[in-house]
Amino acid sequence: MQMEANPRNRIRNVPAPRMRVHLDFAGIWGQGLWMAPRPGIKVRELYQSDDGYRISMVRYAPGAKVPEHLHTGDEHSYVLEGSVRDAAGEYAAGSYLLNPMGSRHVMWSDRGALVLTHRLGPIRFLSGWRPGPEAPPEARGFPDEGTPLLIDTGAEAGAAWERLRKGVQIMPMFEGSPGNYKTALVRYLPGSAVPAHIHLGDEHVYVLSGCQEDEHGSYDAGSYVYNPMGTTHRVWSEEGCLVLIHWRAPIRFL
Ligand SMILES: [Fe+2]
Ligand SMILES: [Fe+2]
How far, in Å, from the CA of 38 to the mean position of ligand 2? Predict the structure, then answer.
């Protein structure tokens, strides 16, 4: 997470914040919020913007499969439970996978999985389509297939962490072009805190383990928190926590 030092007089041109969102996605089974678009696949939408940006939880039953599809925007996936597979390999819990715009694949799970996906454009199913002049309109105009990126974060085992501030560590995973989303894991050691700051772009936080707190609430493992551009808070963790974040612009300390 890129952080800027204390320019307290530069908070301008930040529109009024949209509503914050806090969802406990570990506790929403059975509340009728999951869709079942395909046999064995359940989807819970967490967030959707007007420009097609979407965050979902996807539950794979053992043996479930998502047929071949094209990504019309980058897709970031973080495997929370179980494992998923595509033609290139198997991705266990703790894996972060980027399928770039223009890439296509089939995804399935042999033993079941829970995956958090963060998508910058819709997917287009390709069954029956073969590359050629008859390609459907939605499959045209994308660059050659990008190279997927896989990171086995080893997050809970304490892999490649960098110091962000005292007691707070970061594992950057993806840094897109300016204005695009960045992805990282952030680990708060017990008792650590990040001082008051303003979000200069939307930030999406998923609590993977432990508990994170701010002035607005307490977020246990399984929580999704949306901090829209223009919102402010300070963050701390008494017991320590591991969070996955997607953010679009740096924060600025107040
Ligand atoms: Fe995909
Ligand atoms: Fe924040």
Answer: 36
Q: Which ligand is nearest to the CA of 212?
A: 2
C-alpha–C-alpha distance, residues 181 and 96, integer Å: 15
- Kindly state whether residue 214 falls inside one of the protein's structural domains: yes
Same domain? For 147 and 174 the reply is no
pTM: 0.78
> What's the domain count of the chain?
2
Query: How far does the centroid of ligand 2 lie from the alpha carbon of residue 202, in Å?
Result: 10
Q: What is the Å distance from ligand 1's center to 75 Cα?
A: 7
**Final residue belonging to a domain, choices 152, 186, 208:** 152
Give the model confidence (pLDDT) of 115-134 as tens digits: 999 898 888 888 755 544 44
Q: For residue 33, what is the domain's CATH number? A: 2.60.120.10
Nearest of 82, 32, 76 to residue 59 by alpha carbon: 82
Which-ligand-closest: CA of 85?
1
Confirm if 128 and 115 have CB atoms less than 8 A apart. no
122 and 27 co-located in one domain: yes
Question: Tens digits of per-residue pLDDT, 47-99?
Answer: 887 777 888 889 999 999 999 888 888 888 889 899 999 988 888 888 888 88
- Expressed as residue numbers, the domain containing 224 is 154-253
